[in-house]
Structures are given as C-alpha cells and as structure tokens.
C-alpha cells in the first residue's frame, strides 16, 4: 500500500533509518480497521540522534546561513512538489486518516502548498530595524532563527498542521524535528521525501515516528531543542507547557476547541444552514475549529432544527475514496467510542437526538453518523466539553447578551462565529466573543495570512501570518559606540 517514497522508516540527517530498537508500529486504514503496513516506532535514542542531526545542520549554516530569498526558492519548490504529487498525498491521507479524497484535495493539499508559498514570500521580508537613541551610538536589531524546533502534531490534519509549523520555521532559518501523531504518520514521511527532492539540506527536517509518551516526551525534555511547537489536546498541552516552563523553552500551544456558532433572528437562514453543517461535519467533526455548539435565536429555533434534521441525514457518509463522500470514517476506533459515550450521556441528560446518534456499520470502518442533539442545558458536559466528532448540540437564546454569555461559557476559546445581517451587531458581538478567530456569516474561512490560535484553554501563540514567522525568530539588539 505504501509507495517507494514511504520507507516506513525514520528520516534523520537526510537518511532513512530503522529505529534503534528495531520496533515497528501498525498503520491502520480507518475505513476498514485493517492493518495496511508498519512504520518505525522510535524511542529516546532515536530522538537523541535526530536532535543531534538537526543541531549539526543548524550549526553548519547550510540553511540558516542562506539569504531569505534563497530559502524562499526551496520553499516554493516544496509547494510545487506538493501540487505535483497531490494524487499520491491524497491517497495516503485517505488511507491513513480516512479523509474523503475531495476534501483532502480541496483543503489539505491546497492549504499545504499555499503555506509554503506564503512563507516563501515572508522569508524575504525578515529584517531588523534601526533605532534612533539619545546615545552616541548606532543601534539596530536583527531577527535570528531560534535553532532546533520540535514540531509535535495531532492526528486530524497531519499535512496542514505540520506545514503550519515547518514552513515558517524553515522560512526563518530554523531546523526541525517533527513528531507526527502515531495514528497518522504517513504524510509526514512522504513530505520528508519531498523536502529531500526540493533541496532542503540533510538534517534540516527530520521526521521521528513513534508514540507521544516516548518520542514526544523525549523531544520536550531534550536540552538540544530550542522551541516546542505543539498542536494537540488541552490535557497533553498542559503537560507540554509545564515541561516547557520548567526548561524555559519558548512554546506555541494550539489546543482544543468547542466553538459556539450563533444564529441571530435577522440571519440569512439558507446561508447559515450551509455554514452550520460544514462547521460540524467538516473532517468528520475532528476539527479543532469546528462549530459543535449551535445557539439559535428563539424565533428561528424550530425552523432551523427542522431543516437540520432533514439536511444532516442527507449528508453523504461513506468510503473516503469515493469522490462523492463528504463524511468519512473517524481516524481511530477510540474516537468513535468517545463519541458514543457523549451521545449516550446526552440521552441521559435529557437531550433529544434529532438525527444520527449511532455508529454506521460499514466494512469494519470507524464510522459515526452525523448527529444533531437538541434540548440540552448549557451546563451539560456534552455542551461544555470537546467531543471532537460529528456531533452538533442546538440550544436557544432570547437576547444578544444571553447568546454572548453562552458562547463564552466554556473553558475553550479557539473559534467562534455568528450569522446576522446587521453590520453593527456583527462587530459588536465579535468584539465580545472570547476566541482567537470570529467568523461572520460563514465558517472555517482560513488562510495562511490569517493568524489563528486560541485564548483560555485553547492555548496561546499564533500560527499563520507574520505572527507565526516572528515566533520562530529571536531579536538581537546591536549597539555600536560611535566614538
Ligand atoms: P493529543 O492526544 O494531545 O496528541 C497531540 C500530539 O501530542 C500527538 O503527536 C501525540 O502523540 C503527542 N503527545 C502525546 N503525549 C505526549 C507527551 N507526553 N509529550 C509530548 N507529546 C505527546 O491530540 P490528538 O488527539 O492527536 O488531537 C486532537 C486534539 O488536538 C483536539 O483536542 C483538538 O482540538 C486539538 N487540535 C488543536 C488544533 C489547534 O490548532 N488549536 C488543531 C488540531 C487539533 P501520539 O498521538 O503519538 O500519542
């Protein structure tokens, strides 16, 4: 099932290697539950080797010493290779993550290529500033790369979330050790082969596959790592941040979400319905910025619940290889079990399952039907916690203040959104929502130029935009005496 570019081995110092222990881990196709291959399962010794290779590559200056324009050429080459190899990458992501091929091509491939293109442009803008000071001195600042970046990524958007770290890190002249999620490592290995082909020098990007508790933990605690770029759950994120705090390492924390999607009584209902469905079924609900909490103004509540019941039941769920499929399997069986538990809890808490509410039995795959649940109170765990599956809860509100209060009532603050035709209300409410991004009259409008990240338990730091590039640099001030 793997092609010649997926060696199923670690990519360290420009070479494909077995893990020191020789241990291997299964790769499972979530659409069937069957093992489709194995990959190297690294341990602490492999992490040591990868960090040493990265350090050597950084110190050599082969990458950090290039001009921004020279690095930009390589980043553009990577973007081109992503587009050229789209068919193969889509096949791998579909096999590994269960991503519907149409979604993967339109979103994951396009976004990944655009990230490298965007940071190729920004690589050429990195510079310092001169500072006019009342000293007899000439003062200026330089922006320098940090060094070795540990990029730790989750299972749900393997390509996009790794590129969101690797592209700006490389643009700024850093080197990277990437640990993809154990469940979904294939695209990271394929990308390693593209980095090689694009002319990224050996050791500048290293990919170490293995578990979070061994490889992730070793990377966090490695004294040779200069920055940790983490995307994952809030619970693991707390641990990562505590280790980073202890070791005084800069860290970016992209954590969980549980966004509210508000529909005011003056909304364009037809537009809102499309955004609501996209917001919770996109990527089979395994989307940190999904909108699983729908808040509807009382006058529209019955209408919207009624439309959703019919429309959601008609969303094509099935084989991710079928171009018509919108919702594929979840990435692992444990994710389906977690969704089952939450839906059961919703029933116990008095929730009414409007549609879905059960597994889809298909080929042994990890499918769950898109589900809409009405009638839960705001303090329900199903409303307050991150389910991370294709489940939407629907609640009603009477006033603008009540909607804002409910939207802000969870511990998360990654994304939020609202539908209204009242421009003043749109800005007024956006101002009060506690979230890193607010979408108005649509959902999931994302671009490498638009910073994203969270507040509260959704983390800190921003990916995308010049903000991300800056986070992969450090400022040095140089002051030259003039006498
Ligand atoms: P996770 O369980 O927290 O894992 C994330 C990464 O951390 C994986 O590579 C994991 O490795 C690794 N890890 C686990 N334990 C570790 C440790 N002790 N030290 C270092 N690394 C460790 O998250 P997930 O289930 O893969 O992803 C879903 C979560 O990510 C959701 O909460 C979602 O909201 C969040 N997410 C956030 C964003 C964002 O941008 N804010 C984007 C996507 C997803 P293994 O998988 O190999 O164990």
Task: Give the overall silhouette.
Answer: globular
- Using the CA coordinates, give the radius of gyration: 23 Å
CATH architecture of the largest domain: 3-Layer(aba) Sandwich
Number of H/I helices: 15
State the share of residues found in helices, binned by percent: 40-55%
On the 0-100 scale, what is the average pLDDT?
97
Largest sheet: 7 strands, mixed
Q: So what's the CATH class of the largest domain?
A: Alpha Beta
Bound molecules: NADP nicotinamide-adenine-dinucleotide phosphate
Report the uncertain regions: none
Taking the alpha carbons of the first and last residues, their distance comes to 69 Å
CATH topology of the largest domain: the name is Aldehyde Dehydrogenase, Chain A, domain 1
Features:
483 residues; alpha/beta; Aldehyde Dehydrogenase, Chain A, domain 1; Aldehyde Dehydrogenase, Chain A, domain 2; 2 domains; seven-stranded mixed beta sheet; six-stranded mixed beta sheet; 15 helices; binds NADP nicotinamide-adenine-dinucleotide phosphate
Please provide a written account of the structure.
Helix 2 packs across helix 6 and helix 4 runs parallel beside helix 5. This protein is 40% helix and 21% strand. With 483 residues, the protein is α/β, with parallel strands linked by helices. The model has no long low-confidence stretch (mean pLDDT 97). It has helices at residues 44-60, 68-84, 86-97, 101-123, 158-171, 186-198, 212-221, 234-247, 269-281, 298-313, 333-348, 381-384, 400-407, 423-432, 465-471; strands at 10-12, 15-17, 24-29, 34-40, 130-131, 137-145, 148-152, 175-179, 205-207, 227-231, 251-254, 260-263, 293-297, 352-355, 359-360, 367-368, 371-374, 391-397, 415-419, 437-440, 459-460, 473-481. It has a 7-stranded mixed beta sheet, sandwiched between helices. Strands 9-8-7-10-11-21 form a 6-stranded mixed beta sheet, with helices on both faces. It has a 3-stranded antiparallel beta sheet with strand order 5-6-22. The longest helix has 23 residues, at 101-123. Strand 3 (24-29) and strand 4 form a beta hairpin. The chain is built from 15 helices and 22 strands. The protein folds into 2 domains: 4-255 and 458-479, 3-Layer(aba) Sandwich (Aldehyde Dehydrogenase, Chain A, domain 1), CATH 3.40.605.10; 260-447, Aldehyde Dehydrogenase, Chain A, domain 2 (3-Layer(aba) Sandwich). Bound molecules: NADP nicotinamide-adenine-dinucleotide phosphate. Residues 152-156, 161, 179, 181-183, 211-213, 216-217, 220, 231-233, 236, 239-240, 254-257, 288, 386, 388, 414, 454, 459 line the site of NADP nicotinamide-adenine-dinucleotide phosphate. NADP nicotinamide-adenine-dinucleotide phosphate binds at residues 152-156, 161, 179, 181-183, 211-213, 216-217, 220, 231-233, 236, 239-240, 254-257, 288, 386, 388, 414, 454, 459.
């Amino acid at each position: 099932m793997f092609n010649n570019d997926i060696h199923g081995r670690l990519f360290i110092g420009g070479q494909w290697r077995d893990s020191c222990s020789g241990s291997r881990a299964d790769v499972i196709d979530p659409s069937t539950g069957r093992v489709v291959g194995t990959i190297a399962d690294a341990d602490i010794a492999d992490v040591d080797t990868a960090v040493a290779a990265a350090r050597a590559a950084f110190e050599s200056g082969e990458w950090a010493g290039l001009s921004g324009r020279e690095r930009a050429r390589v980043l553009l080459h990577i973007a081109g290779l992503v587009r050229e190899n789209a068919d193969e990458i889509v096949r791998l992501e579909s096999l590994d993550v269960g991503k519907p091929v149409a979604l993967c091509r339109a979103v994951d491939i396009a976004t990944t290529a655009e990230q490298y293109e965007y940071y190729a442009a920004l690589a050429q803008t990195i510079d310092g500033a001169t500072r006019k000071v009342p000293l007899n001195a000439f003062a200026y600042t330089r922006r320098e790369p940090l060094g070795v970046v540990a990029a730790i990524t989750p299972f749900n958007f393997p390509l996009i979330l790794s590129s969101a770290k690797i592209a700006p890190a490389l643009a700024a002249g850093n080197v990277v050790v990437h640990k993809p999620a154990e469940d979904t490592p294939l695209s990271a290995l394929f990308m390693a082969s593209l980095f090689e082909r694009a002319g990224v020098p050996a050791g500048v990007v290293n990919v170490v596959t293995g578990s979070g508790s061994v490889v992730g933990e070793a990377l966090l605690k490695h004294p040779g790592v200069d920055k940790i770029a983490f995307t994952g759950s809030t619970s693991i994120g707390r641990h990562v941040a505590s280790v980073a705090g202890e070791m005084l390492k800069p860290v970016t924390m992209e954590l969980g979400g549980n966004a509210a999607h508000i529909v005011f009584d003056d909304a364009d209902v037809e537009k809102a319905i499309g955004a609501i469905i996209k917001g919770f079924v996109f990527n089979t609900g395994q989307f940190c910025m999904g909108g699983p909490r729908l808040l509807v103004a009382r006058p529209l509540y019955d209408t919207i619940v009624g439309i959703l019941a019919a429309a959601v039941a008609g969303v094509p769920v099935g084989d991710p290889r079928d171009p018509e499929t919108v919702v594929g399997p979840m990435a692992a069986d444990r994710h389906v079990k977690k969704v089952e538990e939450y839906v059961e809890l919703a029933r116990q808490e008095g929730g009414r399952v409007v549609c879905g509410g059960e597994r889809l039995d298909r080929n042994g795959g990890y499918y769950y039907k898109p589900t809409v649940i009405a009638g839960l109170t705001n303090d329900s765990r199903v409303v307050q916690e991150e389910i991370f599956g294709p489940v939407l809860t629907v609640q009603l509100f009477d006033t603008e203040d009540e909607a804002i209060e409910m939207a802000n009532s969870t511990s998360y603050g990654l994304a939020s959104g609202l539908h209204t035709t009242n421009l003043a209300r749109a800005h007024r409410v956006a101002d009060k929502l506690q979230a890193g991004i607010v979408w108005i009259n649509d959902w999931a409008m994302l671009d490498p130029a638009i910073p994203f990240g969270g507040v509260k338990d959704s983390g800190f730091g921003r990916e995308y935009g010049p903000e991300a590039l800056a986070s992969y640099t450090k400022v040095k001030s140089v002051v030259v005496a003039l006498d």
